[in-house]
Design brief:
globular; Hemin uptake protein HemP; mainly beta; Hemin_uptake_protein_HemP; 1 helix; three-stranded antiparallel sheet
């Protein structure tokens, strides 16, 4: 059963930037999907089975 947002634990981690660049392997070290908040809207960045990135609203 999936947990809703109120039941999930908050995780904080540090991802380093070098020359204003971050590595996708660092972003996806804990899963295949990230949530991005931009101007109060939520986007999802997903890593596909073929290693491609998909950004959806």
């Amino acid at each position: 059963m999936l947990k809703n947002d109120s039941e999930r634990k908050s995780h904080k981690r540090m991802i380093s930037l070098e020359d204003n660049t971050m590595r996708s392997v660092d972003l996806f070290s804990q899963g295949r999907e990230l949530k991005i908040l931009h101007d109060s809207e939520e986007y999802k960045l997903r890593l596909t089975g073929n290693g491609k990135l998909i950004l959806t609203k």
